[in-house]
Amino acid sequence: MEYTIPDYYKKFRCIAADCPDTCCTGWKISIDEKTLEKYRDVDGAFGSRLKNSIDWEGGCFHQYEGRCEFLDEDGLCDLQREAGEDMLCCTCRRYPRHVEVFENRREYTLSLSCPEAAGLILGNQGKAGFLHTVRQQRAEHFRDYDRLLFSMLLEARTVMYDILRDRNIDIGMRTGIVLAFGHDLQQRIGRGRTDKTGSLIKRYKSSRREEYFRDFFWKYRKRANKAAGLRDRMMDVFNELETVEPSWRAYLKKAGEKESVPEWSRTEEIYREQLMIYFLSVYFCGAVYDGEAYAKVKFSALSTMWICSLARRGGGGMEAGYVEASYRFAREIEHSDKNLEFLEKKIMEDDLYSFDNIMILLLN
Known about the structure:
Largest sheet: 4 strands, mixed
Strand content: 5-15%
Order of helices and strands: EHHEEEEHHEEHEHHHHHHHHHHHH
Number of helices: 17
Oligomer: single chain
Structural class: alpha+beta
Strand order of the largest sheet: 6-7-1-8
C-alpha cells in the first residue's frame, strides 16, 4: 500500500478557541457506526444528553441554529471536554485530514475548509511537495478499476505539478498550459486511447512548451477587455447554490465590489500556484472513477479563480483575505455534495465556462 501526504501535513495543529471560525457549524457532522455503538452504551446524565443530541436515523449530531449541539459559547466541544478525545467520532477526530481512496493507494490532504489548514497551504512560499511511503499490506483489487487509466493520471498530474511549480513564467500561463493539457488528455480518454498518451505527456514535459504556448496564448491576451465582464458573470453562479453557512451570504455581499488590486503581485502568484496544486491533488486522480479528467482541471482552475476574486474583493489584508476566501469557499463547495455536483455539471455544460473564456481569465 502506498501512502502520500503533502509536505506540510504533519505541521497542522488545531488552535481551538483561537480559530477565527469553527468546524462545528454549517454542515451535518456524520457519526461512524462504531462510534454510534459506543454512544449507545454511555450512561448517566451525560449519556442522556449525548443520546438526545443525536439524529439516530440520519447518523449525525443535531444542530441548533446551524451549530452542533455540543459546541459551547467559546467555540469549544463539550463532548471532548466532558468525555475526552477518545469519545469523538471519526469525522471530528480526523478533521481537517482528508483521504482519497484508490486501489493500493491512499492520498491524504488537509481540507482547505479549515482556516489553520488554509493558512498552511497558502503560507508555503516554497514549492509544494509530497511525501510517499510504502507499507507491506494485502493487495487490493477494486472491481472495474482501470489501472492503466490511473497510472496515466498519476503521471499526468506529476507533469501538471511540475508545470505549476515553474516560476520562470507567470502563473496565468502555467495554469493555461495545465488547462490545455487536461483538455488534450480528455480527448484521448474519450476515444479510449489512454494507451496512446505517452507522446502527449512527453510533449507537455518538453522544455519547449513555453515557446509554443506563448504564440498560442497571444490571441487570449488580446481579449483582455473581456476578462472583467466574464469574471463577474462567473461569480454570479454562487447565487444558484445552497447556503451551507449563514454568514456566507453576508460575505458575498461584502465581496460584491469590483476587484481592488489591478495587477497580480508575486505573493498572489504563489497563492494561485498553491491553490491549483491543492485542488489537483484532491480531485484530478478521481477521474479514474468517472473518466472526466478535463472536468477536474477546469474545476481546479475555476475554484482558484473564484477564491482569488473573493479575496481581492473582500479586503482584510493580503494573507488574511486569501485565507478567509479559501476556507469560506471550501466550506460552501467542498462540504456540500449538492453544490459540488451542481458546479461540476455547470462548468462542463454552460458555454460561459468554455475553454476560450477560462483562458481569457487566466491570461489577463
